[in-house]
């Protein structure tokens, strides 16, 4: 009985889907600067793209995993009142060209994922996974994943599942989404082509900041070495998981100068100053992360990476604010009270007008300008901000160990 009901319901849905697909036949959809056509043309389009890009060693697609520094709207689709959200004013107040568009980015405009994507010669960041999934039996998800990539990042996410539980999509769940997306891609164009596509794509990762914040209020495990070991073990699992899926080029942004965000300054032992203890916690993690990546590169054939020093970049920028054109590096532009850090960025709060001169947009997140400056540094900036190569070199790296195109 139950089976009969299910299958007749499914039949009805298939008809509906077919009608919709027919109505978009011939329509060409602009996706992040790359053209996606309908399913019939899709294989051809992908082949053509691979042909064009092969000799130039240009990255094909961009896949993003991480936290609010990279989220482009996944959290808009989560339920629950405690979910971290940026889908209200004054987020997006400078989102060009429309302005006043709160997309879910934790910024007054674009974020680091957008700027890295632009640097890679594409449009803004690929769309948020949850904005794609489910539509037309995942048709949109698979097409987008093949042509431009997908962004799985989620505000509040940590390396540990226990970080901000129930308020975000933790790294382990982002990995599951990546895996099922890959399976759907392989079902469409075949496993070998996805393997080739992944090897020539850029995997941008930025996570760990929220695990540091979490440790301030709940230092578990109390032994810092054990805390690092759990973080590094789990991060290693995620990165090797991506490698096993075919990923070869990893752009990894380390944990930032988390003790200097306005919220942490407000609650630091000397209010107004950076929380040095928290910064030391982050610096220790970053050392372990650098060692992890170097170790993976030794062990895994074809594994290429660039670790971007978000921490060191902020340290230098905050030591000489004027050099970056900043008039403020300690106060949230959008917020309330002391340091703009006593309240959230939300309608009715204070919003500064000199948004190109502030390091922080809200009490935790960098301004659009801060995002652009750091993305510029990671991509092709001064050598001290990336190791062992910069993002541009990673993107164009010709690796003999990359699997050969077989299609
Ligand atoms: C869409 O993809 C997600 C995973 O990416 C999967 O969980 C879901 O079952 C898929 N839905 C359909 C209709 O294929
Ligand atoms: C992370 O590491 C800890 C300790 O090793 C473990 O208990 C936990 O299940 C791991 N996974 C995640 C996703 O947090």
Automatic annotation (TrEMBL):
What Gene3D superfamilies is this protein classified in?
SGNH hydrolase
Q: Which CDD domains match?
A: SGNH_plant_lipase_like
* Signal peptide (from-to): 1-30
Q: Would you identify the family this protein belongs to, as annotated? A: Belongs to the 'GDSL' lipolytic enzyme family.
Q: Which organism is it from?
A: Oryza punctata
Q: What protein is this chain from?
A: GDSL esterase/lipase
Checking PANTHER family in the record gives: GDSL LIPASE/ACYLHYDROLASE FAMILY PROTEIN (AFU_ORTHOLOGUE AFUA_4G14700), OS06G0725200 PROTEIN
> A GO term (biological process) for this protein?
lipid catabolic process
Q: What Pfam families does the entry give?
A: Lipase_GDSL (PF00657)
Output the Gene Ontology terms for molecular function: hydrolase activity, acting on ester bonds
Q: Which UniProt keywords apply?
A: Hydrolase, Lipid degradation, Lipid metabolism, Signal
């Amino acid at each position: 009985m139950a089976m009969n009901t299910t299958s007749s319901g499914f039949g009805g849905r298939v008809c509906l889907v077919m009608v919709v697909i027919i109505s978009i036949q011939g329509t060409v959809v602009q996706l992040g600067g790359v053209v996606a056509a309908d399913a019939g043309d899709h294989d051809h389009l992908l082949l053509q793209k691979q042909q064009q890009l092969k000799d130039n060693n240009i990255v094909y697609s961009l896949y993003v995993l991480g936290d609010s520094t990279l989220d482009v709207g996944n959290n808009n689709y989560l339920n629950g009142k405690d979910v971290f959200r940026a889908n209200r004013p004054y987020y997006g107040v400078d989102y060009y060209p429309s302005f006043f568009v709160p997309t879910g980015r934790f910024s007054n405009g674009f974020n680091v994922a957008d700027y890295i994507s632009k640097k890679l010669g594409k449009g803004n960041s690929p769309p948020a996974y949850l904005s794609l999934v489910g539509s037309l039996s995942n048709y949109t998800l698979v097409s987008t994943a093949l042509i431009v990539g997908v962004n799985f990042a989620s505000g509040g996410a940590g390396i540990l599942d226990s970080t901000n539980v129930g308020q975000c999509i933790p790294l382990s769940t982002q990995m599951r989404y990546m895996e099922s997306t890959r399976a759907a891609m392989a079902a469409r164009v075949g496993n070998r082509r996805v393997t080739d596509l992944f090897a020539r794509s850029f995997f941008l990762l930025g996570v760990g900041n929220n695990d540091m914040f979490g440790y301030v209020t709940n230092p578990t495990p109390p032994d810092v070495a054990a805390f690092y070991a759990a973080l590094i073990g789990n991060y290693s699992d995620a990165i090797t998981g991506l490698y096993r899926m075919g990923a070869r080029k990893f752009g990894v942004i380390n944990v930032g100068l988390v003790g200097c965000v306005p919220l942490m300054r407000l609650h630091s032992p000397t209010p107004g100053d950076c929380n040095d203890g928290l910064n030391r916690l982050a610096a220790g993690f970053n050392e372990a992360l650098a060692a992890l990546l170097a170790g993976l590169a030794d062990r895994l054939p074809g594994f290429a990476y660039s670790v971007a020093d978000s921490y060191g970049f902020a340290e230098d920028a905050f030591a000489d604010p004027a050099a970056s054109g900043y008039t403020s590096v300690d106060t949230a532009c959008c917020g309330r009270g002391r340091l703009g850090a006593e309240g959230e960025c939300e309608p009715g709060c204070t919003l500064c007008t000199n948004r190109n001169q502030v390091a922080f947009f809200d009490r935790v997140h960098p301004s659009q300008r801060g995002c652009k400056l750091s993305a510029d540094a990671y991509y092709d900036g001064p050598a001290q901000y990336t190791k062992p190569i910069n993002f541009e070199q990673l993107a164009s790296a010709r690796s003999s160990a990359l699997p050969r195109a077989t299609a």
